[in-house]
């Protein structure tokens, strides 16, 4: 089982869209795929039509107000074959206040996912834009971090914050975390977009994906309709870019498995 966290300490950069798009493509390719909504805003859950409030959510793994619920009872099938979801709920926003510095709370998600390992090939974690107990859990549970980064100058600050948080978490996890910066909302017609992409490639050489996700109104329309990109017939440019990204990521994860075995 491969676990990828999709995170950036900035909203509106395409995290949820990336999780949905890659998840739906993996499932369409025959992989048993779980999307975990780690964001209390629950946009991924809303997008996919599973309300975490009523059905239980990531919140219930932590055992705040009652005993923790077994993760298997919180995972739901979606209307798409092989695509399941562990939804979010608004209560998750209180986790930092309730758990604060309680020991062992950073590994709750890792332990839950370990129980699901026989059932899934891929897990994608859609993270909140804040550094807290949810982000710490997501990074502790992941094999790779994807950082969708909007190709505009202001986005670089969010990226740097994210990479600083990651170094902190890496120190406690005691091993490096492979990372991939994914340029998003790219508009080749604007100088600002082109300049920002060039700057990303120069400053973060080697960790920026070749695939660049364009601004594509079809992506917006598919998400407004609650349809993952893999099933959205009109999607061409956006869909192709996410396909290319997925192929790159799968190639990287298979080479890191080979490295580990060597
Ligand atoms: P985040 O999860 O980082 O807050 P979202 O994935 O929810 O960001 O994207 C924010 C908004 O931008 C959504 O309305 C989404 O449909 C839209 N969006 C995301 N990626 C693209 C894209 N490549 N082209 C056009 N619209 C996009
Ligand atoms: Mg989101």
Automatic annotation (TrEMBL):
Residues 1-171 form the AAA domain. The lineage of its organism: Bacteria, Pseudomonadati, Pseudomonadota, Gammaproteobacteria, Lysobacterales. This is ParA family protein. It holds the Pfam family AAA_31. It comes from the Bacteria. Gene3D superfamilies: P-loop containing nucleotide triphosphate hydrolases.
